[in-house]
Task: structure prediction
Amino acid sequence: MHEGAIIRSLFEMATKIKTEEKLDKIETITVIAGKFHQIVSEVMFMQFNLMKQEFSGFEKAKLIFQEKEIKVRCEDCGHIFQIDSPVFLCPNCNSLNTEIISGKELHIAKIEGIRK
Ligand SMILES: [Zn+2]
Result:
């Protein structure tokens, strides 16, 4: 259960931010996740709603989930392209010498809540 582990670590990060910012009740958590992680958003929301009961102050929290496309740069010809499946072949010169430049992100962008 890949999404379950991701959600748990997001709640742990969110709990730290909640303490630092002295928030009492969390309303929204905005998460940015690159498509590289192959997260199924329906599963993500389901896990979020199940798990939020375990974390104090998160009982009414809503998840805002923003996906980022995978972008790859060819090291040989400099071409930048987007992929949907893990095929890292440059469509311009057929090189496999490519590097992911975005789509690997996985972090909390914003937490909103009510202060004590
Ligand atoms: Zn190329």
About this structure: The longest strand covers residues 23-34. Residues 74, 76-77, 79, 90, 92-93, 95 surround zinc ion (CB under 6 Å). The mean pLDDT is 94. DSSP finds two helices and six strands in the chain.
